[in-house]
Amino acid sequence: MTLEAAAIEAIKWNEQGLIPAIAQNAQSREVLMLGFMNAESLKRTLDVGQAVFWSRQRGKLWRKGETSGNTLAIREIRIDCDADALLLLVEPAGPTCHTNAESCFFRRFEEFIAEPKRY
Question: Would you call 61 helix, strand, or coil by DSSP?
Fold first, then answer.
């Protein structure tokens, strides 16, 4: 699938040229992570069939699992009604979170309030 210029123009990118991309397990429907994509990472995702995000911390593209091997194979991509968020239906090749949890959303908010730390 190629990303045509008209589609790129129609996407509602934020001020930094990014769009939030939610990764969801295509089989279980569990939400796995939230990342951000720019036009280049979206094009690469379509080209390689694996999730490629824009790292806001590192300021560069990164393919999910490039060091851990825990890649996210794309099964389908959906865009919301006002074209400002993506949903990636994926098949994970292992835990998605860098903490080795299946999902980055493993903590209840009450737990975070009791122990407010980042991993």
Answer: strand
Class for the domain spanning 5-114: alpha beta
What contacts 39, CB < 8 A, 6 or more positions away?
3, 8, 11, 13, 17
Closest CA to 59 of 96, 21, 16: 16
Cα 19–chain centre separation: 10
Give the distance, in angstroms, between the CA of residue 92 and the centroid of all CA atoms in the same chain.
12
pTM value > 0.90: yes
Closest CA to 80 of 1, 37, 20: 20
pLDDT tens profile 81-98: 999 999 999 999 999 999
